[in-house]
Amino acid sequence: MLNAIELAWAGLKNYVRDNNVNFSLKDVRHLAHQWMLSLSKVTAMGYINETQKIENMFKKSDRFIEEIEEQLIDEEEDTDSSEEEMDD
Question: How many domains in the chain?
Fold first, then answer.
């Protein structure tokens, strides 16, 4: 979900699904057009803000992993060394 267009596409599909009572392609086209015309600036900004929030969460997660990565590698090496000593 790092692309705001995916959120907008989901909104469009939900609108068409909820309002499509005749199940004709003509109605789907009309409903899609209707949804696009009614899309407000506030809703569009909401899609963008949600995408940025998810992106920031991923960035924080990446930084955290980078911070602990060396500790994890060091702990794994210590465990391997201990196991080798026990085998001797």
Answer: 1
